[in-house]
Amino acid sequence: MADREDEGAAPQEEPARPPLDEDAAWAALVAGFDAEPEPGAAASWPEAENVPEDPPAAEPADQPSAEPEADPSPDVDGPSAVSTVLPPTDRSIVIHPVIHGPRNYELADDEDDAHFVPPEPPPLPEADVTTKFAWTAVLGGPLLLLAFVLFGLELTWWAITVGIGGFLGGFGTLVARMRTGEDDDEMPGGGAVV
């Protein structure tokens, strides 16, 4: 029904505006960028934003304050009016008491849980001679090659053979002598037995 009422009214046309010359507007802005305003020219901002040059002197606190003075410019109304009346100085500050809450809770020290002393670790198993030689070959082979490179010595065929062969032989020996896991059932904490 509202559409039928609007159909009878002729659409209002906005008045035609002249086209805006953007290049001229930018040129005017750039030209006036560093220009100082002429003395005595009208300010381009509202009067409410002006800061008075001399701030009003505050009355001493021990003397009773008189009635607040009225605005010196009563003829100015609206958003451009500036109030120069100071607020009363007899303000009070309310300090709330400290309230204890859940974040202030402290646990009581328990003597039993105060210090955890871990048990002594079991001693390492004694290694046999073959395992010791295998570890020496695994670590010593690459160290021999590294020493030749660091000291700038020529890598000879025997140094390369001992370095690489010792590493591979020691590694193979250690892998071959690894436990198979068959006796893990007898160890404490070895897992559940079904």
Average predicted confidence as pLDDT: 75
Number of helices: 4
What's the helical proportion of residues? 25-40%
Q: How much strand content do the residues show?
A: under 5%
Radius of gyration computed on alpha carbons = 47 Å
Structural class determined from secondary elements: mainly alpha
Low-confidence stretches: none
End-to-end C-alpha gap: 84 Å
- Give the ordered list of helices and strands: HHHH
Please count the beta strands (DSSP E, at least 2 residues each). Answer: 0
How many strands, what sense, and barrel or not for the largest sheet? none
Basic shape = elongated
What do these coordinates show?
- This protein has 194 residues and is mainly α.
- The protein has 4 helices and no strands.
- It has helices at residues 2-8, 22-31, 129-150, 157-176.
- Helix 3 runs antiparallel to helix 4 (157-176).
- The longest helix has 22 residues, at 129-150.
- The radius of gyration is 47 Å and the shape is elongated.
- The chain starts with a helix and ends in an 18-residue tail after the last helix.
- The model has no long low-confidence stretch (mean pLDDT 75).
Per-chain topology:
Blueprint: H1 2-8, H2 22-31, H3 129-150, H4 157-176
Helix pairs in contact: 3-4
